[in-house]
Recover the amino acids of this structure.
């Protein structure tokens, strides 16, 4: 009977603080409010979804903020081409197709300075070597002739070629910009696109200068 009365009696338990102090080494398990935890997960998931949506929007839009022209990143994009693109642009400038726009077919929105720079450099050295070779062949029959390479031809050719490759596109870009303020229906090209077109157009002069 004593045992039965003990079982029927209500036992008073200690508060949580006293129980925890006694059992500091024991492992405790806490059960969170399911409604509260769901709200927290939803809030965290919403933040991640917003960040993912922002990233997807930037990628799908394809609009990248162009760096300022005085930074290295701005000029790095102008040399971001491969050999396949350069070869196609050279072929397109030497053998133009009627009715096809070179800017729309080959350049699009990715003009480069890699091809024009090396085309101009190659043309400079070809002109200088051809000039020295011509002077050598003209004076070769003279008995007192002593061949001395004329390096001034390199500087003269470099000044003429690079000035033409920069100043003519700059002048044309200025004229087109001025005309666009008067006539809005004209097709406008950027300065880099015009510079790229003129640079690749000089590739046809390389075999001509070598002959």
């Amino acid at each position: 009977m004593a045992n039965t009365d003990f079982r029927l009696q209500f036992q008073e338990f200690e508060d949580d603080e006293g129980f925890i102090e006694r059992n500091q080494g024991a492992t405790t398990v806490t059960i969170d409010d399911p409604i509260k935890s769901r709200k927290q997960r939803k809030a965290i998931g919403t933040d991640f979804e917003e960040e993912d949506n922002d990233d997807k929007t930037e990628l799908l839009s394809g609009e990248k903020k162009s760096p300022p022209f005085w930074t290295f990143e701005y000029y790095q994009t102008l040399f971001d081409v491969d050999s396949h693109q350069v070869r196609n642009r050279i072929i397109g400038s030497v053998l133009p197709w009627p009715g096809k726009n070179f800017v729309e077919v080959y350049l699009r929105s990715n003009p480069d300075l890699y091809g024009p720079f090396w085309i101009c450099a190659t043309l400079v050295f070809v002109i200088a070597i051809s000039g020295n070779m011509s002077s050598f062949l003209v004076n070769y029959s003279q008995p007192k002739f002593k061949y001395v390479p004329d390096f001034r031809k390199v500087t003269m050719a470099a000044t003429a070629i690079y000035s033409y490759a920069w100043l003519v596109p700059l002048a044309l870009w200025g004229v087109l910009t001025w005309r666009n303020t008067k006539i809005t229906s004209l097709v406008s090209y950027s300065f880099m696109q015009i510079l790229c077109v003129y640079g690749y157009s000089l590739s046809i002069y390389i075999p001509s200068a070598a002959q």
